[in-house]
Amino acid sequence: MSLLPPSLAAWIALSDRERAQIQSGWNTYGGEGAELVARICSDFREKYGHLPGVEVFGPGIYHGGSWVIGVRHPFVFDRRLLPAYHLGIDVRTSAGSDLPPEFQEGIRKHSYVWAPPHYEQFVDRCSDEIRAKLSRPDMARDEMLSALVGRPFDEFVAICQEFVRKGEIAPFDEGA
After folding, report:
1. Count of Cβ atoms closer than 10 Å to residue 63 Cβ
2. Fewer Cβ neighbours under 10 Å: the N or C end of the chain?
3. DSSP 3-state percent helix, strand, coil across the chain (nearest 5)
4. 131 with 125: CB under 8 angstroms?
5. Short-list 122, 118, 95, 124, CA closest to 170
6. Which helix or strand (DSSP H or E) is residue 97 part of?
7. 85-86/89-94 β-pairing
């Protein structure tokens, strides 16, 4: 028996904790929650699909069996405009495969494609282009970095450093 609420309105009325509890009981590979998540994805598309370059696809099932909303956007995009979750469903973003040289295999400096120095190199090389694409002629370097990673850049660096400490990604510090 599915624990699925009968409507989007009922789902919206639930707390994040209640939504998570219900989702944990779904057999996503068996289709449980599919109709509701399709409505949630449509709601997300209505709220965020107007952003320039944003393509909403899905819903989909992420590794391990959880529902997600997939979003593709240009590499130069203010990811802070998109939530990490929408009505309890994880939002997974992708910048596609058209990456700047700083991130390309065989050109980039560090093995981890999303290493913070790659973002810094890109921003230093392309700051005028970034400001123009984001229609923000007054953007400072740190704000550009934060826009590209979707959170304060120093927070992103700390997360990456923790991954290095755990051995999940290769070191990226200039001295490494």
Report:
1. 6
2. N
3. 45, 15, 40
4. no
5. 118
6. none
7. antiparallel
Per-residue pLDDT tens, the chain, 176 aa: give them.
455 556 899 999 999 999 999 999 899 999 999 999 999 999 999 999 999 999 999 899 998 889 999 999 999 999 999 999 999 999 999 997 889 999 999 999 999 999 999 999 999 999 999 999 999 999 999 999 999 999 999 999 999 999 999 999 999 975 54
* Domain locations along the chain: 8-94, 101-165
Those residues whose C-beta lies under 8 Å from the C-beta of residue 40, and which sit 6 or more positions away, are: 8, 11, 59, 69, 86, 87, 88, 89
Q: Which of 150, 140, 152, 153 is nearest to 75 (CA)?
A: 150
- Quickly tell me which residue has 């707390």 as its tokens: 15
Contacts of 18 by beta carbon, 8 Å cutoff, 6+ apart: none
Eight-state DSSP code of residue 17: H
Token pair belonging to 117:
């120095």
Q: Which residues make Cβ contacts (< 8 Å) with residue 157, sequence separation at least 6?
A: 116
